[in-house]
């Protein structure tokens, strides 16, 4: 099953997870890292649009937020959310985040999306090129935690990763705690963070959710 089909099929369930209590704090933090009043901010792989209200709050009436996603059904949710604002304030477009369908931007946000790319380092490079020197990029992703307090929950995290992987079935989820299904995700997330680290200054890194979620941001040199 392709990534677009997978997120298309599970859009309603995904939206519940994406807007679960507590998650809004991570989303607000991610928005505040990249978006300034008057900015044009692009969210790559915006899914059901859970970040859009926080981004809009940060850019204010003089700014613009554009959400980009490959899959139709999550975009319909995102369009509903964007519908609370004017077309000039928040827009949602169907497109490929690996080849952004946007000419210029002040900032780019990608949350829980870099782990889905074949070559995340190259994609983050393109995002840095898009915003140019002085532009901001932030990446928020899940990875197996290094924090002692979260370590006992790593098997559960592996099952969660397996459940969220396009193409996996119930057997994969049950076997996941005893394997390493999070390894490809962690490798891709590490590659995206390495690319951002290479290209940026004034970086900040913060973790949420017992260390299972990391937010890295920086200003392009
Ligand atoms: C795990 S969801 C994250 C959604 C949202 N960023 C959030 O934090 O809730 C990943 C989203 O990325 C989208 N996606 C995956 N690959 C993409 C690509 N190459 N271009 C655009 N969207 C993509 C999927 O369709 C899906 O909606």
Description:
The structure is a single chain. The protein is of the alpha/beta class. Helix 5 links the parallel strand 2 and strand 3. The chain has a single domain, classed as Rossmann fold. It has a seven-stranded mixed beta sheet with strand order 3-2-1-4-5-7-6, sandwiched between helices. The protein has nine helices and seven strands; from the N terminus they run H-H-H-E-H-E-H-E-E-H-E-H-H-H-E-E. The chain binds S-adenosylmethionine. S-adenosylmethionine binds next to helix 1 and strand 2.
Topology:
Layout: H1 3-9, H2 11-18, H3 23-34, E1 40-44, H4 52-59, E2 64-69, H5 72-82, E3 90-94, E4 107-111, H6 120-131, E5 136-142, H7 154-163, H8 170-175, H9 183-199, E6 200-208, E7 213-220
Parallel strand pairs: 1-2, 1-4, 2-3, 4-5
Antiparallel strand pairs: 5-7, 6-7
Bound molecules: S-adenosylmethionine.
S-adenosylmethionine binds next to helix 1 and strand 2.
| Model regions low in confidence, pLDDT < 50 over at least 5 residues | none
CATH H-level superfamily title: Vaccinia Virus protein VP39
Overall domain count: 1
Output the number of helix runs: 9
Instruction: Count every beta strand, where a strand is a DSSP E run of 2 or more residues.
Output: 7
For this structure, what is the CATH class? Answer: Alpha Beta
Mean pLDDT: 92
Indicate the radius of gyration in whole angstroms: 17 Å
Compounds present? S-adenosylmethionine
CATH topology descriptor: Rossmann fold
The rough form would be described as globular
What is the second-level CATH architecture?
3-Layer(aba) Sandwich
The level of helicity is 40-55%
Write down the secondary-structure element order: HHHEHEHEEHEHHHEE
